[in-house]
Amino acid sequence: MTAPLTPPPPPRDQSPHDAWQPPGDPGTSGDPGASGAGYPAYPPQDASYGQDGPGIKTELIEAVVVTVASAVGGLLLGVLWWWLAPHVPLVGDIVDKSWVVYLKDSEGEQAVGVDGTFTLLAVAFGVVSALVVFLVRRRGGVPLVAALALGGLLASFLAWRLGMWFGPTKDVLAHAKAVGKGVTFSAPLKLGAKGALLAWPVAALVVHLGLTALFGPRDPEPGYVAQGVGPTDGYGAPLS
Fold first, then answer.
1. Which of 13, 82, 117, 129 has its CA 20 to 30 A from that of 231?
2. 108: how many CB neighbours lie within 10 A of its CB?
3. pLDDT-derived band of residue 137, with 50, 70 and 90 as boundaries?
């Protein structure tokens, strides 16, 4: 005797709302045997996917170049400050057989002019450095911004020390004795307001961030990109 034959089970109803789709259905990618068959297609990812601009190594090299270039500019700032800053006149005299030195013009504003000259020059150098960096590297980046700030501060410090070194001697008493009693001579070049050292980095940061916000490249809008596959309605059917 043979066992009675049982009818085969009815075919499964494939509803479009099923979470699982057999290979080869609409909305899948590839052949049934291909990797990822039966799943929605996603944009292909290459080696540069998720990267924004050059690598961190390139950005660090650029930051070092900006810092060094700013320091070199600080040497030029120091020379210009020494050349353009007004001179503070001093006069030596002998009182009770001792040399004294005093301001020739007690109401003069030459000392304020020395600080103002340094500040204006530093702001101009900061604006130029930010403009050059933006034109060379429009995308910007945190390393470049940090390099502008650090390089500007280093440049201001070098300019300050270099201008003082080029200026008259700090030993005003010896200078007064050398030129003689009642002879006017220039006071040492010094920076009274140390806050002027921040003029370069602050100007560079403000200008660079402003240029980047107004004229820098914009990030592309997020979207779905696939090779020959457009967006679908969630069931595998392409949107018209």
1. 13
2. 13
3. confident
Rounded Cα gap, residues 163 and 77, in angstroms: 8
CB 75 within 8 A of CB 95: no
Angle at which helix 199-215 crosses helix 56-84, to 10 degrees, equals: 130
**CA proximity to 167, closest of 91, 112, 70, 86:** 86
For tokens 């130029």, the residue is 128
Do 100 and 92 meet the contact criterion of CB atoms below 8 Å apart?
A: yes
* pLDDT greater than 80 at residue 30: no
**DSSP readout, 1-48?**
--PPPPPPPPPP---TT-S---TTSTT--S-TTSTTTTS-------TT
Q: In angstroms, rounded to a whole number, what is the distance separating the alpha carbons of residues 81 and 99?
A: 30
The residue with greater pLDDT, 96 or 28, is 96
Burial class (CB in 10 A: 0-12, 13-18, 19+), 147: buried
| Assessment of whether the complete model's pTM goes beyond 0.85 | no
Distance (Å, rounded) from C-alpha 100 to C-alpha 134?
53
Helix (H), strand (E) at residue 179? helix 172-179
